[in-house]
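Practice problem 4.
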């Protein structure tokens, strides 16, 4: 399952209003496939209710937010106080929104990209408790509820209570109905571990998909309409939801479900149409929602401890069609800007042969024409596991190859031809408009995507490139942020046209990787 769960997330708790009106009675079935519930009627929910600094480890003064967005949002911490941080795109204006002390923090909470609405106005959060993941059946107060916080005025709205009326006794009833060796404890743990992970905003921000157990013995898929404040139940089935995601066009909702949670769990993957009238059980259990080929086609793969990733395929979530790409192990795949070429590193192992690959297979860098699925190996001077790929544009600058062991940076054409940039670097990143490349080495190098040098920038004193964890471009490609790991977790801002990196935040605990950050308040035509 391609759902990376942030370890640092917390949620908001403010005063709640009255509960949502009840939905139709339980209709959970014993089939593994969730039952569509498109005929279910909507029910109403509750009524609505920096200046520049030297790169030293000090508190960073900020002015108030000075723009209407977009804002970079992330988790911020000072001591035991946690907040959502919103930064203007230039890093100067900042707003910190505190979390209440009695927020639910026990069930492993999702990232801001799942809980913060795309316009940056609403935060979905949980109050109460359903017990602890791997908590040996303890139900705590059994009052878990989903809420929305209006970040513009601090007012809270109760969306709905999430638990069935007989929670947690319902799990014994469910296990008895299944009669398949699946115990009540397994079901309860799967429910608790998945309930607060299964939440996601639609791309347009109009709809919140979430998991609830209000109407049955297991968690099911629900939608909350922001305009009407209505809740619609889309599915019914005996398994517990473990994660949700939307297709890029917002027409399909992906849901991962299982009877258990933890190491070795096998997930079933479903695609549900927005109106709930169609539910497809997909033939693969993974859809990499960070890497879509188009609005319906994502990359899928399997993974195992000690083996890594293997069985790379293309999965159409609307039709269920699967196109195998490579059955063996692989890493660091990238797709060209025109979606015509795939590049990946393939590794030699028992799975490379066991899955039916050519016994004469040679590990290395491979290029795949996504129109014909024909592949070819690129002859490299050196091949090791420290090489990564970055998709660029087209022609002889289709990809960039970075060897982080030797810090070499080369362009790669679809013909397999390598051309050196003459730059040594530890990390690279391409701007959203695909016009500018940044490479972090002894200096910060800015280049055009075709390799033409733009300018070099000195790193702040004491910083080394190998400790840079994430690179985050502004949506308009006019600058970027980067995070630095030592000695504290720091966030720097850098304009593309002029200036040096400015330290804009540093804290005891701060988001580090790209998945820990999200842009909100973007114009609707932003890529």
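Answer key:
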């Amino acid at each position: 399952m391609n759902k990376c769960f942030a370890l640092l997330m917390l949620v908001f708790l403010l005063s709640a209003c009255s509960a949502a009106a009840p939905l139709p009675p339980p209709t959970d079935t014993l089939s593994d496939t969730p039952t569509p519930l498109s005929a279910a009627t909507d029910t109403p929910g509750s009524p609505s209710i920096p200046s520049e600094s030297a790169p030293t480890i000090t508190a960073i003064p900020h002015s108030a937010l000075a723009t209407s967005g977009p804002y970079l949002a992330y988790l911020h911490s000072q001591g035991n106080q946690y907040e959502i941080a919103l930064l203007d795109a230039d890093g100067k204006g900042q707003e910190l929104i505190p979390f209440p002390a009695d927020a639910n923090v026990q069930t492993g909470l999702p990232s801001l990209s799942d809980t913060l609405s795309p316009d940056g106005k609403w935060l979905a959060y949980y109050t109460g408790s359903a017990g602890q993941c791997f908590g040996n059946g303890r139900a705590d107060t059994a009052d878990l509820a989903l809420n929305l916080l209006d970040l513009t005025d601090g007012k809270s709205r109760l969306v709905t209570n999430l638990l069935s009326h007989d929670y947690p006794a319902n799990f014994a009833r469910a296990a008895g109905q299944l009669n398949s060796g699946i115990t009540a404890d397994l079901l309860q743990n799967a429910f608790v571990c998945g309930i607060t992970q299964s939440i996601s905003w639609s791309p347009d921000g109009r709809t919140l998909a979430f998991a609830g157990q209000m109407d049955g013995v297991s968690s099911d898929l629900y939608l909350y309409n922001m305009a009407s404040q209505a809740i619609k139940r889309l599915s019914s089935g005996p398994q517990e939801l473990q994660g949700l995601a939307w297709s890029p066009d917002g027409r399909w909702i992906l849901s991962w479900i299982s009877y258990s949670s933890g190491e070795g769990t096998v997930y079933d993957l479903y695609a549900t149409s927005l109106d709930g009238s169609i539910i497809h059980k997909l033939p693969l259990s993974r859809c990499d929602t960070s890497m879509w080929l188009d609005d319906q086609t994502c990359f899928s793969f399997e993974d195992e401890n000690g083996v890594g990733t293997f069985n790379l395929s293309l999965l159409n979530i609307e039709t269920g069609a699967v196109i195998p790409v490579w059955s063996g192990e692989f890493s660091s795949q990238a797709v060209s800007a025109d979606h015509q070429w795939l590049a990946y590193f393939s590794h030699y192992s028992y799975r490379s042969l066991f899955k039916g690959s050519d016994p004469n297979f040679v590990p290395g860098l491979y290029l795949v024409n996504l129109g014909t699925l024909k592949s070819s190996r690129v002859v490299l001077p050196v091949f090791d596991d420290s090489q990564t790929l970055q998709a660029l544009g087209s022609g002889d600058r289709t990809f960039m190859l970075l060897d982080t062991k030797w810090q070499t940076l080369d362009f790669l054409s679809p013909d397999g031809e390598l051309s050196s940039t003459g730059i040594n670097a530890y990390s690279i990143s391409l701007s959203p408009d695909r016009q500018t490349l940044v490479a972090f080495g002894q200096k910060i190098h800015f280049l055009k995507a075709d390799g033409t040098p733009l300018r070099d920038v000195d790193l702040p004193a004491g910083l080394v490139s190998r400790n840079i964890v994430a690179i985050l471009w502004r949506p308009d490609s006019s600058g970027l942020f980067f995070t630095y790991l030592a000695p504290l977790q720091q966030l720097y801002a850098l304009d593309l046209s002029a200036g040096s990196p400015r330290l804009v935040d540093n804290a005891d605990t701060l988001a580090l990787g790209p998945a820990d950050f999200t842009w909100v308040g973007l114009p609707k035509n932003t890529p």
